[in-house]
Design goal:
By secondary structure, the protein is mainly beta. It contains one helix and 30 strands. A five-stranded mixed β-sheet has the order 1-19-18-17-16, with no helix packed on it. The structure holds calcium ion (4 copies).
Length: 455
């Protein structure tokens, strides 16, 4: 499966329309699209209605351009779960207490196994891996939530169908419903749709049942939708946006009116973050709250946190998608930023720092000081260089001024990170997942646990 990409310049082929975010183009796809572009039959630009734009932001200079600090001693890293076999494809990791025993477990999407695996914390810092569910076609996001509200943790799995670009309706959404004894039955919630990359649950229409927001990357066709839960695993779908390249949806009450809103990251053709403000009854008003003028910006992920602790949920945002280029790799504008929620649906952009190949930004109070730091992994970098950073901390001084510290140079090619008390110490540990699509295939890992060193 692994291969080098065609060495075509952007002058002949816009790779943005061929390759994207852990969606790896095969040569036939690229060649076919090049042919379409060269023969003048490219899809029409901007085939959509124009929403209200509150900001349109060029890539500003980073405030942390000075040489980074390095602290390889902050965490002890060790492999966790099954040993690697071949080249691992872990697309997503998350943490949560799946069996309700008070210990935080790890869930991961393994795209070589086409399975969601459960790493149960059996004793402090000790994990036993089992397959929670297999026969899931290219699972790329697992969301732990008590979806049926019966008191136990269920899992909602977003499946792309395949990780290679494809316009076919091969995406699906699967509920793994917990019987209370950690036997999970798989129930399809959505099938035969453009490839699904993310889904989150919240009661979007206020009727007491959890509904869903869904991101569908597709390829040339994708969308953002919400699914009204009618009960009995019946849903009524509403398309919020018809654009390819949706990679994340997040739900929070962004405008403070009491109703959960939806934020979505679009990374194909456009590099934009949309806000869908909820009336409270499941009708939404959309606007763009971030748009880069750099069409190779490489949007790679968003997550929600209240970074400045003012009570308003903010958006952490990374751009480091190296798959998006004909010549995959790092770019000087890759990095991490946050959109500060200023209330009433308005946001202010702040660059946090530069980081080659930045993926999976998360906010973690690493030192238990009531301040959120930012952690990011690198999916793309100059991996021939042993000094290339694969795990980076942006330490918050409490005033949202960040100091960049490199925490690790290996394993390389990590695209997902999650935090939790994974050693029983009460302090946050990290878990990372690696996805090897391109050489070099050294310093590999599958799942890595990062425990804080004892003070
Ligand atoms: Ca449940
Ligand atoms: Ca509902
Ligand atoms: Ca709201
Ligand atoms: Ca805030």
């Amino acid at each position: 499966m692994e291969r080098t990409l065609p060495g075509k310049s952007r002058a002949g082929l816009d790779p943005r329309r061929t390759l994207q975010h852990w969606i790896l183009a095969s040569r036939p796809c690229v060649a076919a699209l090049a042919l379409i572009v060269l023969s003048g039959c490219a899809p029409e630009a901007r085939p959509r209605s124009t929403p209200t734009r509150s900001t349109s932001v060029a890539t500003p200079a980073s405030p942390t351009a000075s040489a980074p600090e390095i602290d390889l001693e902050r965490f002890v890293s060790l492999p966790v779960g099954q040993p690697i076999a071949g080249k691992p494809w872990i697309s997503h990791v998350t943490t949560g207490d799946l069996d309700g025993d008070g210990r935080t477990d790890i869930l991961a999407c393994d795209d070589k196994l086409n399975a969601v695996v459960w790493l149960r914390q059996t004793a402090p810092g000790t994990f036993a891996e089992s397959i929670l569910r297999d026969q899931l076609p290219a699972p790329v996001h697992a969301e732990i939530v008590d979806f049926d509200r019966d008191g136990d943790a269920d899992v909602i799995v977003s499946c792309m169908g395949q990780v290679f670009p494809n316009n076919d309706k091969i995406g699906s959404l699967v509920l793994l419903e917990n019987d209370g004894r950690q036997t999970f039955s798989a129930q399809p919630l959505l099938e035969q749709v453009a490839r699904v990359t993310d889904a989150r649950a919240a009661d979007l229409d206020g009727d007491g049942r959890l509904d869903l927001a869904v991101a569908q990357f597709g390829y040339n066709q994708g969308e953002v939708r919400w699914m009204r839960n009618l009960g009995g695993n019946r849903f009524e779908s509403h398309v919020l946006l018809s654009l390819p390249g949706a990679i994340n949806v997040c739900i929070a009450d962004f405008n403070g009116d009491g109703a959960p809103d939806i934020a979505a990251l679009i990374s194909q053709n456009y590099e934009e973050i949309y806000l869908f403000e909820n009336s409270g009854f499941g009708t939404f008003t959309q606007k763009i709250i971030f748009g880069s003028t750099n069409e190779d910006y490489g949007s790679s992920g968003i997550s929600i946190c209240d970074l400045n602790r003012d009570g308003r949920p903010d958006i952490l945002y990374s751009n480091g998608d190296g798959f998006a280029y004909a010549d995959p790799g790092k770019r000087p504008w890759h990095g991490v930023q946050w959109l500060e929620n200023r209330g009433q649906g308005f946001f202010k952009y702040h660059r946090i720092g530069d980081m080659d190949g930045a993926y999976s930004p998360i906010a973690v109070d690493l030192e238990n000081r009531g301040v959120l730091d930012v952690i990011c992994v690198s999916g793309f970098n100059d991996w021939k260089n042993p000094r290339a950073a694969s795990l980076v901390l942006f330490r918050n001084d409490g005033q949202q001024r960040f100091t960049r510290t490199v925490l690790a140079h290996q394993p390389i090619q990590m695209i997902s990170v999650a935090a939790g008390d994974l050693d029983g110490s009460g302090r946050p540990s990290l878990v990372t997942g690696s996805f090897y699509a391109y050489p070099p295939f050294d310093n590999m890992a599958r799942l890595t646990l990062w425990k804080p060193r004892k003070p």
